[in-house]
Specification:
single chain, 178 residues, 6-stranded antiparallel beta sheet, 48% strand
């Protein structure tokens, strides 16, 4: 059996003048089952709906986090998610404060309780560590004053019919050097 071990991936023609860096490792989680959480207040986030753990090999590495989520809601309204690291929201990966508006990362619109909204996003983080680091996605909504139920990979109605799909969600962490 052959193995190829490298410290980075660089284009065949080399890097442009003055550039450096490469991909060190990629770790990914795909969730095929469902997640649900009730009692989510407007302006707050759920618990971790999906997570991935990466152990950076260099303190100076950056982590590119990419997620594609299938989000359901018990109301037809805005759905969103934010990236968290080690249980805390990545404050530089959410929108600015603006009165009572929810600060979150990536937003979509769930058009019906029988629908799932695909919401994707990515962010380049600088964790400055070589310890195992867990990133997760937490869900939020835009229903005024509502304690709502949110879902991953299913709709609210989730009937046994072809119009109510089951789907997957993924989160991937790329360790990159610059």
């Amino acid at each position: 059996m052959s193995q190829l071990k490298v410290n980075s991936i660089v284009p065949v023609g080399g890097l442009p003048s003055g550039a450096n860096g490469g991909i060190i490792q990629i770790v990914s989680t795909t969730r095929t089952d469902t997640f649900s959480e009730s009692g989510i207040n407007e302006g707050s986030h759920s618990g971790a709906a999906i997570s991935v753990t990466i152990t950076p090999s260099l303190n100076s590495s950056k982590i590119l986090i990419m997620a594609s989520l299938s989000i359901g809601l018990d109301n037809d309204n805005e759905v969103s998610f934010a990236f968290f690291r080690g249980g805390s929201i990545l404050s530089n990966a959410i929108g600015d404060t603006a009165s009572n508006r929810t600060r979150t990362s990536f937003v979509g619109k769930c058009e019906a309780t029988s629908a799932i909204e695909g919401v994707s996003g990515w962010f380049l983080d600088s964790p400055s560590t070589t310890s195992a680091t867990t990133y997760d996605c937490r869900l939020s909504h835009g229903v005024n004053g509502g304690n709502r139920t949110m879902y991953l990979n299913r709709s609210h109605t989730d009937t046994d019919a072809d119009q109510d799909s089951r789907s997957i969600s993924t989160i991937t962490a790329w360790e990159v050097t610059t």
